[in-house]
Amino acid sequence: MTALRLVLGDQLSLDLSALADLDATGDAVLMMEVVEECRYVAHHKQKIVLVLAAMRHFAADLRRRGARVDYVRLDDPGNTGSFTGEVQRAVARHQPERIVMTEPGEWRVQAMVESWRDWFGRPVEIRDDGRFFASRGRFAGWARGRRTWRMEHFYREMRREHALLMDGNQPAGGRWNYDAANRRRLPKQAVVPARRRFTPDAITNDVIALVSTRFPNHFGALDHFDWPVTRAQAFEALEDFLANALPRFGDYQDAMKVGAPYLYHSLLAPALNLGLISPREVCLAAETAWRAGRAPLNAVEGFVRQILGWREYVRGVYWALMPHYADANALAASRPLPGYYWTGETDMRCLREAIRSTHEHAYSHHIQRLMVTGNFALLAGVAPQEIERWYLAVYADAVEWVEMPNTLGMAVFADGGRMASKPYAASGAYIDRMSDFCADCAYDVTRKTGPRACPFNYLYWAFLIRNEAHLQANPRMVMPYRALAKWSSERKHSCLDEAATFLDQFLA
Ligand code: FAD
Ligand code: DLZ
Ligand code: SF4
């Protein structure tokens, strides 16, 4: 046998570089379900089902196309439980001349793979992952020599380079950015569209049974798994999004509503991150919808910005700054993660809602992640690594290269401004403006102090006071620090006391 070709759980793409020159008769494709990948954080049960079910469907597809797939199941006798152990067993089985793979998505696995050359005594060829708009090298080239990195600058280069939403040399519609039009509150009477979801087939049901037995104590409900697990289903999900949600995606991108976790979001991140559908396919489909008059430009630009801009940018940041990035803690935050991030048992309705949909669907949308659970962790001073591991565990789309910069850089400002120009800190007023959560909350969003005051209010000011030395000079923080400058030191102390009392009571 000539080559052993590896396909990892987030590499489920027929055009994967590791498969580019596959010799269907001579080579073997190795896919491995391993317990180490299921446990390195205690992933939401739906995420494990998603990955393993998508792997099994992908293997069946490869076989139909004539490939020799050596597929190791989680409960196969002899399964060693780790990538290294399984590659070692496969090398003994197949005696390949070389091992071929696509660069892994995670630094931890990259380090593991780099040790294989010595370990297996044969060449290990690690190829670039061509499924992104920008290679790791392309981002490094862009970042080199720049003092500050900003997504907006990178995004504009990507728009030009990939001719997406461009009219010649100019941005389509004359503007690069429609964010200002994309912050509308959802009207009370708005009817949110039902979304195309997917009933598990026999293959997925087998995996559901396996995960219920093997990982009963992992977070999350498993009684209504409905994520797309094949490329065909990912395209159905894309079509559903284009027809039913994209036209409103821009307007209500930041809105939140009780009982409506999906609103107008695409729900495509899990399929994108596993490789079932490519970012290029998704962006081109959105652009085509705009050119055909089926969606407005503010929606389509806002959507393309998330994928061509944010998604590529955070991947670049991750690979440029790992492994040190993982330890970032610029604000020296050290509180433990509150237990109610796992149970949802809190009187703060905004948090309860976000955690409920996280538990039920392995999903909450970006603003719930950034401005509710993330904002609270930032204001409360939760240790960055604790909240980072939580985000990695609880979402169907969670993969470290995208999750970590979003958490450390955007949500809790642990990287001191590498990713974002200011902390996304906000009081209850922001949540009230963008949602209907506050109307029926045990706390009163209009009160600043006292037992019924919305905790986000005093936690916000206490955060600013605590971090004055770090943040006061930030030009984007001038306004709140100007307001704080008018506070007496007595008022500041009382605010800090109220915040500490709340946190000590509820974080215990
Ligand atoms: P939509 O709102 O429909 O957006 C379209 C697509 O754009 C998404 O599918 C995603 O691929 C991309 N995208 C949107 N926002 C971002 C962003 N900030 N960074 C990178 N890509 C983005 N996304 C993940 O894919 N995996 C994660 O583990 C993850 N962790 C996050 C943790 C925190 C603290 C925050 C604030 C954000 C995180 N995100 C993560 C980004 C974003 O919240 C999700 O991509 C999005 O909510 C997924 O839902 P959707 O597919 O409906 O997205
Ligand atoms: C997330 C995940 C899980 C839960 N299980 C597996 C698995 O059993 N086999 C596999 O190949 N991949 C799995 N994955 C995805 C990997 O964690 C991912 O491929 C690496 O972290 C590299 O990005
Ligand atoms: Fe959240 Fe405060 Fe609104 Fe309650 S009042 S939902 S705690 S922002």
How would you sum up this structure, described in words?
By secondary structure, this protein is mainly alpha-helical. The strands form two sheets. A five-stranded parallel β-sheet has the order 3-2-1-4-5, sandwiched between helices. Helix 16 crosses helix 18 and helix 17 (384-394) packs across helix 18 (400-411). The model has no long low-confidence stretch (mean pLDDT 96). Strand 6 (166-167) and strand 7 (170-171) form a beta hairpin. It has 23 helices and seven strands.
Feature tags:
single chain; about 500 residues; mainly alpha; five-stranded parallel beta sheet; two-stranded antiparallel sheet; binds flavin-adenine dinucleotide; binds ligand DLZ; binds iron/sulfur cluster
What do the pLDDT scores average to?
Answer: 96
Low-confidence stretches: none
* DSSP strand content: 5-15%
- Choose one word for the global shape: globular
Order of SSEs, N→C? EEHHEHEHHEHHEEHHHHHHHHHHHHHHHH
For the sheet with most strands, the description reads: 5 strands, parallel
User: Nearest-angstrom radius of gyration?
Assistant: 24 Å
**Fraction of helical residues:** 40-55%
Structural class: mainly alpha
> Which ligands occur here?
flavin-adenine dinucleotide, ligand DLZ, iron/sulfur cluster
DSSP, total strands: 7
Lateral strand order in the biggest sheet: 3-2-1-4-5
Distance between the termini: 58 Å
Number of continuous helical runs: 23
